[in-house]
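Example record used in the benchmark description.
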Amino acid sequence: MSTFHFAEQEALATPKISAAEAETLARERYGVDGTAEELGSQQDANFRIVAPGGTFVLKVSNPAFTAEDLDAQDRAAAHVARHCGIRAPEPVPGIDGRTIQPAGETTVARLVTYIDGDPLGAARYLAPPVVAALGELAGRTSAALATFEGPLPRRELQWDLRHAHEVVAKLAEFVTVPGGPDAARRAADAAATALVPVAGRLPVQAVHGDLTADNVIAAPGDDGRPNPVGIIDFGDLTHSWAIAELAVTCSALLPDAGTDLSAVLPAIRAFGRVRPVSDDELTALWPLVVLRAASLMVSGRHQASIDRTNAYAAANLEREWRIFAAATSIPLAVGTELVRSAVRPATPRPAAVGAPIVTGHAAVLDWSVTSPLLHNGRFLGEDAESRPPSGLSFVPYLQARLTRTRLDSPVAPATTGLGAELLSETPFEIRAPWPGTVEVHDDAVALRGTETLWLTGSLQDVATGTVTTGDVLGRTTSVRVQVGRLGERPPFFVTPAMAEAWARVCPDPTPLVAPGGHEPAADDLLARRDQAFAPVQEHYYAEPPRIERGWRRHLFDIGGRSYLDMVNNVSILGHGHPRLAEAIERQWRLLNTNSRFHYRAVVEFSERLAALLPAPLDTVFLVNSGTEAVDLALRLAWANTGRRDVLTVREAYHGWSDATDAVSTSVADNPHALTTRPAWVHPLAAPNTYRGRYRGADAHRYADDAVAQVDRMAALGRPPAAFLAEPFYGNAGGMALPDGYLAAVYAAVRRAGGLCVADEVQVGYGRLGEHFWGFEQQGVVPDVVTVAKAMGNGHPLGAVITSRAIAEGYREQGYFFSSAGGSPVSCVAGLTVLDVLRDEDLQRNALLVGAQLRGRLLDLADRHPLIGAVHGMGLYLGVELVRDRETLEPATAETAAICERLRELGVIMQPTSDRLCVLKVKPPLGLTAAEAAFFVDALDHVLTEGW
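Model output (structure tokens):
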């Protein structure tokens, strides 16, 4: 016999008890003398009791529930805690030894231990790993409760999803949101119907019944993200379908998913790893999500109407509506396919079967991310999709269109077409692929037959009534063609994340448009990369987007999602610059060979480079990378001095060759850097004025120590051949060296007969705004300058610029040659970069936009304690993140997580420094003020909402 049946209760208003009464109850019944603070609850009265002996929760139960119900909840909580290795509330014995105490004539109370932390639901953003952790916890809880033994009173709760359809039917009249009661009833009816084939086969067991983010207690992990540490509120414990546990968890994740319901998939995958999901349960899962959403919404509206003083119930109404709106925003079949894809292998996409709808051959029209038709930013024009092809063409099914991208958007746009689009300069006929009935809608024509053909566009001479195969349906110059298996009309564009799920109810119409034609191929490119490309060549991000195009300051993945590139200092002009592309193509068609031949480009480029530097730096070597440039600079020093020892600076990276790796001291690039340097390498202390040994007024002591080191080496008969350093401390986070540092060290090294090498590979070429070269900021002139990266805007190009005398010194080591460094194509690339830097005034832009950007980042630092400092100048900035501004403990894990979150919001960002706690801000120099603002706003959002 049931101890409670929701249908027999007209109302379950919360017990009326004040905080003062709760304090009295805790003191008199449990001997706990503390201060009470009311906690929210749908149907019970809960209070946090803070007492000298600890913190507790006093739970005064609704009169509808018995002491036996509460005892079962306590036993289940203990069972789950033991089996899941997680904390759960433990009942506290009263003064008389009983855990359950009377709390008036009709209610009882319990005092349970309080779990420190915050509800996971208090987090304003749940990252995919956190969503997965919640799903895993739901799976472990379900597995544990499958073995729960002992009496469990039979309760027919309204939260038992076996009764959700009945709950909605009973309470839908209280719904006042868009669609009203009918919307709730229609959704519940459809979901209940979908459950009929499998309901009798679904396993039944004890379930928590309310395993949502609000009932999971979390504590910050090492990366600052909330990690589940406890489960609370077993008040909905009952026997029900086991898969209902996951349905409840998934529904709770929907309010913040927006249009991308794939946000729930990490939870489903994680649940399935610890508690396998059967095919029947997969079929039931999304209908149960909808039933949970509908019953939650109607119950919330009902509770608020009969318990108007319940602030907790009232506060949840808007969130419950968003859950319902999200759950019902897609057809049940699409939701079912979405969740199936999380734990099952992909299945072949369905294709339409019928006669061709057009006469003649239709060519493929490519509007994808890689389309040559969309070069030079044509995809951003308002007419990007309106230029008709010369003949009959079609845009393929499931093609993600770059023409549908949105720049500087925090959400992924709907770029993927669930059909094909036919276009032609001249009108063409559309014919019926099967017999059926024609329906005319506002902007579409539907042919209802074995499946539904949807034609969207300006059709003329539209047929009416019944037609047969091959009959003319209309004439047009442009039409979107879809095949639907549902009654309602599907959207034409969806996000790439949702496209495969929608494809199951929108079969491929290509056989009707171009029989034997285009078929998009699935391709696990990342797995292929891991097989063929040495994994030590790592990629950005845990799940990297596949980037296939760049334009100006943006990168685009294969789904048409745009990302603001704030880290790519190689592409100093931006991506896809037409002048550079045209110049390289033109030269390649003319000549590309090596610099031992005589041609104009190598002369002109060398002259232009030398003219950018002060005397006596007038002689140029051309190579193809920064590694080669620094390696050659070292060889010049060795050849000119006859010595081997080199002074370098800690936390620096200079390349991967044997020599450049030897002088690289960054432990971020090589964890063993400091313990594996050869004896000829002498690292100096990092002149880090933010967290180093000397700060503020003492910063000059870095130079004093370096000079002393040079003097000691000279006294020992091992004076340095060279001092190598970035003139602006790039790899450490984009910070300026202490004033006078290079002047002092350069003077000491030269006194000892050594050469001073400025590594400008990262910081040079106008990035600093005020200065073209980093060494100018220090007021010095090096003996040798190395440069690369920005020189070719991504084309492999590097240079060493020095004096004629030092260059001639290389002859002691023989002949120098670099196959690609001075090639005609490389030189033309380098010349064009210099032309564009000048003509577009990009150094000045770096100065102006960089100053605005730095100012806004400093404003963020005033509001977000995680920002310890903003380093740098121009468009070479570093945002250093720390856990404590006093100890400067680096926020390494947080920085990595923040970069992942920024990627989700449409910004490419990566960490730098030996502690990997600095956001390296090194965008193309054409960055606009609006783009800089988008980055800062995104960072502000992440630091405010969480990561």
